[in-house]
Design brief:
mainly alpha, 0% strand, elongated
Amino acid sequence: MRGNPKALAFAFLLIAGCTGVRGLQRDLASPEWEVRYSAATKLQELSLNKDTIGLLFTAMDDPAPRVRHRAARTLARLLSDSSAAAVCDRASGASDTVKRAVIEGVARAQTPEEATPFLTEMCTDPTRDIRLAAARALRGSTDAAKVEKLLGVWQHETDEEIRTAALVSASYPAESARKDKKLLSCYKDIIRRAPAMLRNPQILRAAGDLRIADAEPHLLELMTDAELRYIAIEGLGKVRSQKAVPALLELLKRDESWVMNRQVCAALGRIRAPEAARALAGYFVESNPQRDRDQWDRTLFITTAMAGIGGKEVFEAFASQITEKNRRDFALYGLHVMTGASVVRRENRWMYTWKGIQRLWREWWREHKDEVAQKLEREAEEETGQ
C-alpha cells in the first residue's frame, strides 16, 4: 500500500520519537520540513552545550522559513546569562542567517550584556543588516565598554540608519551614559553643527533622556511640530526647562487629548516651577472629573503634577477641595503623595467628618510644611542625579 510521504514521516516520528542529540541530528537532515520543524522544537527540551548549539545553528540555517523561525525562538528560550557567551563564540564564524538569528535571540532573551563582545564585533560585519541589528541590540547592554565602540561606528559608518542606531544604543542606560563626556560632547556637537538631526525621534528622545541642556531651544521649537511635539515635551520636562512652562500650561488649557494632558503634566511635575503650581491649582479647583473618563484622567494628571511641585498654593488647593464631593478623593491622594503622610487613623475613620479631616490637614501643615519642602527638594535632586 502506497502512502503519503509526509504522513509516513510523521508516523515514523511518533513511533520512534526524537531521542537525544543523534536523533535530533538525524531528523534535522530529513527531506521533510515538518520533521525538521519538530526537531527544532524538541531542541528546547535540552540544555545548551557545544552539541545542541551546533544543532540549533543547523536548524537556523534551514532552507524552510518556518524551521528557521522555530529554531530562533527555541534559541531565545534557552538563552541565559551563562549560555549567551558560548552561543556567541560559535556564531562569530557562522553564516549570516545564523548571525542574525543569534543577534535577535540575545535581544529577545534580554542577555545583551553577556553578548556585548559579539555584538560589538558584528557592528563591523560586511553585511549591512547584521551591523544594523547588532547596533540596535546593544541598546539593552549595560556594559560601559560598548560606548567607545558604538561612538566609533557613529563616526566611521556611512549608513545613516546604522549610525543613528549606534548613537542611540550608546545613550542607554541613560543614568550611566550621562556621565560619559565623549558621548555628551557628541550630542552637543550635533546640536551645534547639525541640529536638523534632532528631528529624528530616536535622537530627540535620547537627548532628553540624557538631559542635554543645550537642546532646550530646539525642543522648544519642536513643540510646534505635530509629529515631534510629544517627544519634545518629554525632553523639556527632563531638562527642566523653565522657558517651556507658559507653552505647556497653554497646551493643558486647550485640553487636546488625555495623552497630551498626561505628557504635559508629567513635564510640569518634573520642571517644578512655582508659576505652574499656581495655574495647576486653578485648573484643579475648576475641574469636573465626574463629567467623563477623559476629565477624570485630566484631573488625576493635574493632581500628580501638583503633588510633585508642592508649596503653599498646592496645599491650599488640595485642602480646600476635601469637602467637595467630586474632588475630595483627588485632593486626599494629592496630599498623601506630596507629604507622604496621613492624618486619619484607619481604625477610627468613621468618627471623622470631611470638615474635620480638612481641619486636621491644616493643623498638620502648619507644623510640617518645612519638612515637606525638604522632602520635595530631595526628590528633585534624586531625579536629576545631582
